[in-house]
Specification:
The complex is a heterodimer of chains A (171) and B (135). Helices cover 30% and strands 24% of the residues of chain A. Chain A has one domain: Glutaredoxin (3-Layer(aba) Sandwich), CATH 3.40.30. By secondary structure, chain A is of the alpha/beta class. In chain A, helix 1 runs parallel beside helix 4. In chain B, 53% of the residues lie in helices and 4% in strands. Chain B has a two-stranded antiparallel ribbon with strand order 1-2. In chain B, helix 2 crosses helix 5. Classes of the chains: A alpha/beta (171), B mainly alpha (135).
Chain lengths: 171, 135
């Protein structure tokens, strides 16, 4: 199966410091030794994020309660997506606040981070909701290496990712 | 080469059948396409909704109780809590802009037919009338 090798250390996801839906500080260390899925979204996004979230939820349900699998959704709209807004979103989504962190942070930290995840996140007045971003779900291994991505808007692609996570878990 | 009578009959039946199927499908094609592009992202490909974030449309009481409010909700968006099928939703809905009254008519008839299994249909005049009541 096509999982790329881990890559070099320079290809590692850089360290980050953000705040989650319960107001807790979250860093890359919280994911050490865990396989995790990351995405970039905003709660008021009218276009692709809801699909992305729905597909992320499908993966979450598959690995719910598995201590080796985590989820992180980086909001790219710090102006609107405050801690209470993220908390409400997580509650309405019905997810565990420890296994799936929805996080916010300053734009000048989040946007470069999106690049490290090979994603795009930027403000764009002409885009629906005011932001342009890619709908990718990114798969990262316990050593901070990007191991795969899927088009978060396509259910078939999501099933492939479930398969990849299972392979990583078995390694 | 000549076709036998029974061969010809089979061809005629086949052509008629495919015509009926095609016409039958086309009735809701535009509505389905609009739904898929403009609505399904949040409400789900089959109107199932998403947890307590995005309300379902399939068998949703909004299609029976207050269909006349829907054109305004679609074009203006919705803020504040509302109860759909007994569950409270309060995530804001963004406006869906740029739909003509004919496109909205096709969308509504697709929703009524596919999501509610209803015989009811709406007309562009219904939609235009309902749109006048928007704030």
């Amino acid at each position: 199966m096509g999982i790329p090798a881990g890559g070099t250390d320079t290809a590692r996801i850089p360290a980050f410091l953000v705040t989650d839906q319960l107001g807790r500080k979250v860093t890359q260390k919280d994911f050490d030794g865990k396989i995790y899925i990351a995405d970039f979204f905003f709660t008021s996004c009218p276009t692709i994020c809801p699909l992305q979230t729905a597909n992320m939820l499908t993966i979450y349900k598959e690995f719910k309660g598995n201590d080796r699998v985590r989820f992180i959704s980086f909001s790219i709209d710090p102006r609107h997506d405050s801690v209470p807004v993220l908390k409400k979103f997580a509650d309405d989504l019905g997810v565990d606040h420890d296994q799936w962190r929805l996080v916010t942070g300053p734009k000048d930290k989040i946007y470069p981070l999106a690049k490290a995840y090979m994603s795009i996140a930027q403000e764009d007045e002409d885009a629906p909701g005011g932001y342009t971003h890619s709908g990718y779900l990114l798969l990262v291994d316990g050593r901070r290496h990007l191991r795969g991505y899927s088009d978060g808007t396509k259910p078939t692609s999501v099933q492939e990712m479930v398969g990849k996570i299972k392979i990583l878990l078995s390694q | 080469m000549t076709l036998s009578k029974s061969g010809l009959l089979i061809w005629i039946v086949a052509i008629l059948c495919s015509l009926i199927v095609t016409l039958g499908c086309n009735t809701y094609t535009q509505g389905q396409r609009i739904y898929s592009i403009r609505c399904a992202g949040c409400h789900g490909e089959h109107g199932e909704g998403l947890e307590r974030l995005y309300p379902p449309l399939k068998l949703s009481n909004i299609l029976t109780d207050s269909i006349e409010r829907l054109p305004c909700i679609i074009t203006k968006g919705l803020i504040g809590s509302r109860v759909v099928n007994g569950i409270t939703f309060d995530h804001a809905m963004a406006p869906v802009t740029g739909l003509s009254s004919i496109e909205m008519t096709n969308l509504f008839n697709y929703l009524l037919h596919d999501m509610f299994d209803s015989e009811k249909t709406v007309t562009p005049a219904d939609i235009e009338g309902w749109l006048k009541s928007c704030e």
